[in-house]
């Protein structure tokens, strides 16, 4: 399963993503943002970091990188696309996901572990989790405060498109458990067709018990398993 | 073609939380300006542009704002000034 890991100038989680995909049996390959063409690629991942120094707005300039001209049609054709942290910001700026990520309510760069509830386990990104499972994953961002207009939020909730929500150890969403002020504790969402996912926390940093958590492993395992299943069923997407 | 100098103002939309504005509001109160309320922080973008007319320059800047300079989810924009450079 070929997974393209996109590197923008200023990306800094691309090697972690590469390693995470590899660890669960996928075949990652780096794509520099100026490279074009996603032929034969099964999924695209946009990594965390500070693309273009976060100038103007986080993700605002990266979304016009040459490779995004391929990522957008790839996503629109049903290809699986994942954006983590800065990658989530890029996907929002590109209009592949609704809403926007603004400055944390605390005004601080938050760098800590967070707890998230997995709201759905029936997606290509979460099938190896249990619905309602609480996972511990690091986060590290200054602009992770998810905002959208009321109509968009209502659509997200009604369509069960919130995949991850910040919660406390008991699995309850609360202001105290919310690290950045995101509306409704939203940590990760999917698009309407369910093939594009963005999240602020870093599952690729939760792959080794030695480093504190393995709760990120199921996300990558889910992705690779769903790609394998798709290939076996001859339903490859996004070509 | 004439060269125009443009001033563009990008501000958080009403109702969108502005943590920077909140922090400055708090700081101003601490300094004794207790009458201050509703502080919002935006961006001023100044640029020069060659265009056939003032209206054309304004129209082009509007497109720039819609495409890149402002995020319609969270920000409003105004073209404050268009004048020959």
Describe the protein in words.
The complex is a heterodimer of chains A (239) and B (85). Chain A is of the alpha/beta class and 239 residues long. Chain A has a single domain, classed as Class I glutamine amidotransferase (GATase) domain (Rossmann fold), CATH 3.40.50. Chain A is 22% helix and 24% strand. Chain A is built from five helices and eleven strands; from the N terminus they run βαββαβαββββαβββα. Chain A has helices spanning 14-23, 68-76, 86-93, 150-158, 217-232; strands at residues 2-7, 27-32, 43-46, 80-84, 100-102, 110-118, 134-141, 145-147, 162-166, 186-190, 196-199. A nine-stranded mixed beta sheet of chain A has the order 2-1-3-4-11-10-9-6-7, sandwiched between helices. Chain A starts with a strand and ends in a 7-residue tail after the last helix. The mean pLDDT of chain A is 94. Helix content of chain B is 33%, strand content 35%. Chain B has a single domain (2-84), classed as Mth169, Chain: A (2-Layer Sandwich). The radius of gyration of chain B is 16 Å and the shape is elongated. Chain A binds chain B through residues 56-57, 60-61, 64, 92-93, 98-100, 102-107, 145, 147-149, 181, and chain B through 12, 16-17, 19-20, 23, 68-69, 71, 73-74.
The end-to-end span of chain B amounts to 12 Å
Unreliable stretches of chain A (pLDDT < 50, length at least 5) are none
The tally of strands of chain B reads 3
CATH second-level architecture of chain B: 2-Layer Sandwich
Sketch the topology of chain A as an H/E string, one letter per element.
EHEEHEHEEEEHEEEH
Helical content of chain A stands at 10-25%
Q: What do we call the CATH topology of chain B?
A: Mth169, Chain: A
- Low-pLDDT stretches of chain B: none
Determine and state the CATH class of chain B.
Answer: Alpha Beta
Strands of the widest sheet of chain A, in order across it, are 2-1-3-4-11-10-9-6-7
Name the largest protein-protein interface in this structure: A-B, 21 and 11 residues
Q: What Rg of chain A do the Cα atoms give?
A: 16 Å
Shape of chain B: elongated
Q: Give a short account of the largest sheet of chain A.
A: 9 strands, mixed
Oligomer: heterodimer
- Using the coordinates shown, work out and report the CATH topology of chain A: Rossmann fold
Rg of chain B (C-alpha, Å): 16 Å
């Amino acid at each position: 399963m070929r997974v393209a890991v996109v590197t923008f100038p200023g990306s800094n989680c691309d090697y972690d993503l590469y390693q995470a995909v590899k660890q669960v049996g996928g075949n990652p390959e780096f794509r520099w943002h100026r490279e074009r063409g996603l032929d034969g690629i099964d999924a695209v991942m946009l990594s965390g970091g500070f693309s273009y120094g976060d100038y103007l707005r986080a993700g605002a300039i990266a979304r016009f990188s040459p490779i995004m001209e391929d990522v957008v049609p790839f996503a629109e054709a049903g290809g699986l696309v994942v954006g983590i942290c800065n990658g989530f910001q890029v996907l929002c700026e590109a209009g592949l996901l609704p809403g926007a990520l603004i400055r944390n309510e605390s005004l601080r760069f938050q760098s800590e572990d967070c707890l998230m509830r997995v709201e759905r386990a029936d997606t290509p990104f979460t099938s190896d989790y249990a619905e309602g499972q609480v996972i511990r994953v690091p986060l590290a961002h200054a602009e992770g405060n998810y905002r959208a207009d009321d109509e968009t939020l209502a659509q997200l909730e009604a369509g069960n498109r919130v995949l991850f929500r910040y919660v406390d150890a008991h699995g309850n969403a609360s202001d105290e458990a919310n690290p950045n002020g995101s509306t409704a504790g939203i940590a990760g969402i999917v698009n309407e067709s369910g093939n594009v996912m963005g999240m602020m926390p870093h599952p690729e940093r939760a792959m080794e018990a030695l480093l504190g958590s393995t709760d990120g492993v199921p996300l990558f395992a889910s992705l690779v398993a769903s790609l394998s299943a798709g290939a076996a069923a001859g339903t490859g997407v996004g070509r | 073609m004439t060269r125009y100098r443009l001033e563009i103002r990008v501000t958080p939309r009403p109702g969108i939380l502005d943590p920077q504005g909140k922090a400055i509001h708090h700081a101003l109160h601490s300094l004794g300006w207790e009458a201050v309320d509703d502080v919002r922080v935006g961006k001023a973008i100044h640029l020069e542009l060659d265009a056939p007319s003032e209206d054309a320059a304004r129209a082009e800047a509007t497109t720039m704002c819609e495409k890149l300079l402002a995020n319609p989810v969270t920000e409003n924009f105004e073209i404050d000034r268009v004048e020959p450079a």
